[in-house]
UniProtKB/TrEMBL annotation, chains A, B, C, D, E, F:
Alphabetic keyword roster: Kinase, Transferase
CDD domains, per database record: KdgK
Homology family: Belongs to the carbohydrate kinase PfkB family.
Name of protein: Carbohydrate kinase PfkB domain-containing protein
Record-annotated Carbohydrate kinase PfkB domain positions: 3-317
Length: 340, 340, 340, 340, 340, 340
């Protein structure tokens, strides 16, 4: 079984030591992007995964490829060309100060790419799962039509389409997201959508009342929204959502819900210390896909995926480098503080 | 409207990674000092502010000026000369281990300076607010008389005198502080005095019983002390105080009280994760002054100032680099963990 | 009064910034090992202490010696020779991710050493306390017999033998530990054994039910085990144990129990933020020995030792560099967050 | 006397330790750009200087301003707006490996700016010297016409126009440069043009035979080209050029030539170790302007400017932070290796 | 055309900033080893290359694989198992102080591996070139017989065997090297042997008189030795050697000689600044193989290989990350110091 | 045989990466001072050495002790008390930019110390060599009289007095140095005085013509001055001097001269790359003393001392950590670039 993920990998420049960007004399330089993150997670779990994107012909493009190849992701289908690599700057928050992202991804090789760049029949030739996210269509209309082309081919070839709705308010409006998602969703088989993104991505009124301290208590309302999505699009067999109570940048409670083939499943609730604030949703998605690939029971899919996400929150950078045994140990944890 | 702050800026050498000083192979090198901190805060908020001090004619003196000029503080009135820049070493505590300061500021250019160094009529020519703190008179009797000279000029020119009582037990005794403050206070219009400093600075018996976990509960007693200060010195229209419950180096609750023109105001209480343990009081002071300059209502002055202080606790270094919009976002926070 | 500690000091290579080892482009390089840690703690407290080990004749061996000599430990009895220095890699956990140790200490100069390497009569000539731990016998049978030789000499010379049972499941089995301890314990005078190690080291069924969140509540059961150890080995006058509730890598509650000359003592319970996850037990042991050397009352021994351990958890590296006054300040703490 | 410089300041991201970009886990983050560099140099020499550019309204734009304000440059005329800050990546070469620049400056706030952004009559109101370089017109035709507008105003107001021809082959072609320079040069009073740029910028056939080891020997030919430039444009009173023999990234010989009011001047030849490979030409330009402002004799202008450039090569980053006394000490150097 | 390289990859721990090991509070952590270095070089040049070794099942083993996979090396044939990863410590010299290596590679997974670990028929199934070095047989007699097994299979399958004689005096004696090489060389087709290693590896008396400043002048003598090797072993069609004049750690002259199919070729002589003192020979070997694979003329093979080696000396770490265009630019260099 | 050295050890704060102090966001924190440096050198060579100074009772004082104890120096005679540790800031030069020292050592514990602080009869009880330098008397007249007291006791006890004249123009005038040296020299047995310090320390007109590129050629003149010193003070049996041609911060030639018991000896001349610009003279002094202690022939004393100094120039920090075998390898060097 093979997975292909398609999206943008960016150079991520992070102010060290929780500094504000204006204080920093150097930036940590890593790479990340939802679809690359999912690819790396799956490769670390031992799955066969291709990551597809477009990167410029310069050393930063090479570095983007090396970043995923390092962990066993197949990079042979990455297209080279275009003007620049996308960049995002991250200022890590702490306590009451939220983390802040400055996107500098306009005019990147990927953002400027379109259908002519990707030979979908070849790229999808040996794939069983095709993973995409709501970030790519937010970048350009050319990418929207590219995505639609790809998922239609998937449909004809019985490739499972996995879509993480991932709403990014700095990239497009909720109205645009909803409009695009209406076109895409009829081709989607698995959908991940977290917290209040249900409203921004699908226009489904959620129960979220704006108080981020009190989300999990409203899980019933989230379940109803999840079922509604599955109802609207018959191709969908799985909807999975993380819901979070957020107390501060470092502290929150995390739970997850799964609606699969007409049944609901609920994870345990984790009380978590958060070290690395990004890409836990991607780790969750990879965990769900891994569970499906390996025929986990639905409850195990969900618990495994949430344990992967929880572990990601402890790992610096965008990639979840946790191994299968690390994830399983968290699922069976007895509050160990050291293994020696 | 212009503000002038007067005091010492020191080279601050901090052991990295919460090491003890004896473990460190390098020190982080930044600059700070209550009055410089206030100046930088105000400049970041867009106000016109001059910082006045004395620094030696060497590259460390240049660096001290660059540290404030970088953020828009006017440094034209800084006097050059003297033997050395003051230094303070900071060992960051954590958990139950308190942070520790080693002062190495004796014989600094500023500590050795006196009335002949500062041309007060020129320095105060275009100023509306003159900010000083209880640290300067703790350094020498020459500086005490310099301060008295300056505030008397302020009185004749209707310049508002802002005094942060800031008691430092490693620099002078409570008895000396009380004696000096009795001379100074008749010229003060705004007074900031936090927690148990009310006793050390003014000899007013406070309610503090030595249990730092349980200060906020005694706010009534603090209010009485604040009113007493205002009673004693008719020039004073504003007394503002932060009161804190301290659980560990990283965790505490913060609240603030304002007595202005005969009325009391209370802030909300913040439950805070503390990253940077110094200079939150200076951020508070700058927030109060900014609120007054921009004609905020008293409750808004207080809430804005405490939000600024709370935000400062998340920012490394002595300077509060938070912007006006950052502060207002905290005042309206809904527990965001990331903006993207 | 002099103390001699005997064991391995290793090069400790730690992934920085809570990274996983696979992410790190550099490792922090420090030195540590239970017996070296105890020696450094005692030296920092002003006691006369020798550390005995075997280190290779290369610059890493020199560096191991320098690491303890730096803090006043006498290194004159360290034997030089053998092939390599032992190494351990540490991946610092956080939140729900436990810290992980990779030992690379096989074939080290110390692990390969044996009786011919140590001139016990000379080494023990001026010593009053001989400190060893359960790590050394876990390394080889040669070291087991070396230890037995040494403690028999101690018996004839009335040198107090201090044994920290310190079980390490990655080095030997519980069965082997129990078998060796049965040979050693008749020569031991003070025994430290923490939490569930009572079972692994001595085969005494403890009350620990596998839930690390709920250990302290079972202190009565631990006391019974401690008394049982003292009963079994008449040479023992002191058994001391730390018991911990662990919530996450950074958060736990710590308490300690002492059984001395037939009486039980209990420490207060600390609610602790944990920064440095290793070597707190060694700090505790050093605190106990220091208390005995200086004729503290039993309750004071225990409280001092636990305060030392608690403070160690705030200090990076393996060595507890806290001073006597730092420890006493913690014993009398009023939640200070900064001293200035 | 006031100077105004106009151009782009970029975020400069440099691979540390002479790594290739693909090896770096962090980048040094500084700021630079020819016209900002000249402004900082002049400010460090005590001159009154404004830097004008356009920067986005985000924290990276703030940081760009802070970078020059830190050293005393007046930033009040900087325009805010646009999409992004320009970036350039630097891979430091060494030995036979040349340094490599990756420009990522398209679509920056400055590159997209044009005449409507700059209120030239106000900006030039109190200026005596207006400094620009050949980098700005290489960015867009909008900036070309903006520059022509500005220099025409300078002509009417008797403001001296200083132009560093600075050819950048990665930004435009020689043909485009020559075409633009023909329009600009009639308004220029001082022209700096180094080494083989004479051909690329002005189409004047130089003597350079492609052997960078042997440039200084051909100084007579360079002089002829310099005189030719002065002949072609009667507004020009000063042409100054650095000529270099390059042996490796770290080693070269530097000399400079000046043609002023019909007379030639030659500097001494420096045999230099090069630490920081960029911005020495900007330091030279600032040195020339400083000399003119302070009425140095022509030979002193040239020698001072070349000493400044030579010193810049020893200082990390783009800014020449050397002081006037540092530069004069180099002019009178006796091979000191330490001052103590 | 595919290449397979076989050997050990080690964790390389380097003291930063040219410190001695005893001074370092952290070590740079990279990976290297002759055969891995060759594999990475070839992958960066776009060739298809497999690296074969044995690594332990722990995160350090994973990291060793990631280190080569990052740059496109195929790691599918790497065997997992054994006790530890080999380590080497590097103290970078400078000036007159030579760099110093401490090997800690005994008992590594690779050093303990033998014939049962490697399925040669499968590993060599699709390979055209098999690259090995004199370091592997220096590690154990088991590895010697493994190597002989492998090269005999190569002979039957017409796979070219490339052998870099690479003598390491800290691992085995010259006598042992000569004895093994006599067994291996009948199966070798290309042999690389540098400087005085001719004597240590083959017992051929070279002209080297112990003066490392004056080696290149003796090239005639080296040529005779090279021809002698080719004469002794008819399977050999190519012998290539680097010869160096060494003035200090940072400065030397490098040249190379090639004897191919009965003809001699000489490279130009480079006068080089040396930044990274290791693995230039591996870069040379990769350059030679790349030239052969791509049918370069013999002189071009040699010049390309030496340019690759010269460039490697400017790149930190063990891997030559230079691209094909970088190498060709050096071959055609005109002393550029920056590309912009 | 024991040596005692007496002088100040300072905290040394160095701008990293050859930055100017104004650029640095952190400083490297090490410790150094001529007499401490000599002590560490001797301890690394295996000699028994005490270092005597006065340090404040704070963690920086502890750190100063740890810095020398780490390498085996006996610190038992160090006096604790006073106000602060002396500090010096170092800006490393490069190329034509000289390194620059900012002393901040006034009012240090040592600078303020005097005769009452040092119990000379006890300190000198078991010493054979007493090492002092010209830096101590430059700090205060109290220290001048302390030194005279100590050397008089040495005379009565037949302890050899070693004096490194070490002139520091930033601490005192040449006239003051000459006046003090006239009092001290009658008690000195070995005198080290380098380059042009002969004039500043003793008023002996040397041949130095101000051209630092051409000092060694004037060695005959230096020899005459050395003999003159020995003539003036009959107690002196040894005068040793380093003479240097300085080309840049990184490059010079070094030689040394010895006048011992009426005979002259000359070292070979080293052409050196200089990495660490300070404390080579101290390494030379330690090498001379070590040679005398171990009865080296005079030529060997000189060659060993200069090799030690040359090696020091390659080692970061103030301490010469070279071992005896490292030094001897340099004496017999054949331009090795790596040992492996």
């Amino acid at each position: 079984m093979h997975i292909t993920t398609f999206g943008e990998i960016m150079l991520k420049l992070t102010a060290p030591k929780k500094q504000q960007l204006i204080q920093s004399s150097h930036f940590e330089a890593t790479f990340g992007g939802a679809e690359a993150n999912v690819a790396v997670s799956l490769a670390r779990l031992g799955d066969q995964v291709h990551f597809v994107t477009k990167l410029p012909v310069n050393e930063l493009g090479d570095a983007g490829i090396a970043a995923v190849a390092k962990f066993g992701v197949n990079s042979n289908d990455i297209v080279r060309g275009g003007n620049r690599i996308g960049i995002y700057f991250l200022e890590r928050g702490n306590g009451i100060r939220p983390s802040n992202v400055i996107y500098d991804r306009s005019h990147s090789a990927f953002a400027d790419s379109g259908e002519l760049d990707y030979d979908w029949p070849a790229i999808l030739a040996n794939t069983n799962y095709f993973y995409i996210s709501g970030i790519t269509p937010a970048l350009s209309s050319k990418l929207q039509s590219t995505l639609l082309t790809a998922v239609k081919i998937c449909r004809t070839r019985h490739i499972e389409v996995v879509y993480d709705a991932n709403f990014r308010g700095k990239l497009w409006s909720s109205a645009d997201a909803i409009a695009f998602n209406e076109q895409l969703m009829p081709y989607v088989n698995l959908c991940f959508v977290h917290d209040e993104d249900i409203y921004d991505s699908f226009g489904i009124k959620d129960a979220f009342d704006g108080n981020r301290r009190n989300v999990i208590a409203q899980k019933q309302s989230f379940k109803e929204s999840m079922a509604l999505i599955a109802d609207m699009y018959p191709s969908i067999h799985t909807v999975a959502s993380i819901i979070r109570d957020t107390y501060s940048v470092e502290h929150g409670k995390w739970a997850a819900l799964l609606f699969q083939n007409g049944h609901f499943y609920e994870s345990p609730i984790y009380d978590l210390t958060v070290n690395a604030e990004v890409a836990a949703g991607d780790a969750f998605g990879a965990g769900m896909i891994h569970g499906l690939l390996h025929h986990f029971a639905p409850q195990d899919q969900l618990d495994y995926a949430l344990a992967a996400a929880a572990l990601k929150l402890t790992i610096p950078g965008d990639f979840n480098l946790a191994s299968d045994s690390d994830i399983k140990a968290i699922m069976n944890s007895t509050n160990r503080s050291i293994n020696r």
